[in-house]
Specification:
The chain has about 250 residues and is of the alpha+beta class. It has 5 helices and 14 strands. α2 crosses α4 and α4 crosses α5.
Length: about 250
Amino acid sequence: MILSSTVYQTLVDLIRADKRGLTLSEDEYNRLSVIVNERVFAKKYKDFETTTSNIGLLAPLKVIDYPIALGAAECSLPADYHDMIGKPRIIDDTAVTRRCDLVSQLELDERTDDFLTQPTQAKPVYTLGEVDDSGNIILHVYPITITGNITIDYLRTPNTPFLDYYVNDTTLGRTYLDEDALAAINIPTGYTYRDGTTGGPLVTVISHTVNWECNNDELSLILAIFASLVGITLPDELLIQAANIEEQKSE
């Protein structure tokens, strides 16, 4: 895990070192974090479990043995679903585990037309179809007479990093909040919260800070992608570190 405040403060230091007097506000950083997070994930996902050396590359993002209730032989996948890992399992009435094969819509039609390859209770299949009202992908199981729960292993999307803070009204100094969505944090008198809320003895907020779901050695890669978006020149040693990370992930 890499703290959002660490990434931001390091990035600001690099911008100042660029000798153009430019800076980056926390709000701009939060907007760009969405793009950077997606690009970092895409780079790691490209080589996901292609070799034994990178099997653990996205291990923190694996969700194992996740049960979902079937309704009319279909269910909505989790909102953070990215890709299926392995085969979903259905436990039938006799406590036998049946693994489901993923098929395309065309293959499903062809199998259904052939008596020898039709989906059965013993050999079920599934397709990934349209989306529900919340925008989540719907999983369809065949034959449609199957009931109960389906258990999946999937790779989730990483949480989007965010840096929450409040500002000293006099010095304009920032106080960055830790990642803790459970604790109520007091905004002192003389300070203003990120959204404009004026501080006071009874004024509390919940931190929205989300840290980066990355290893510490990936900080150089994160900074390199940020730099390409804001147009700053990175020191040679940082570029070398980022390149080395890329090379290691492709081996």
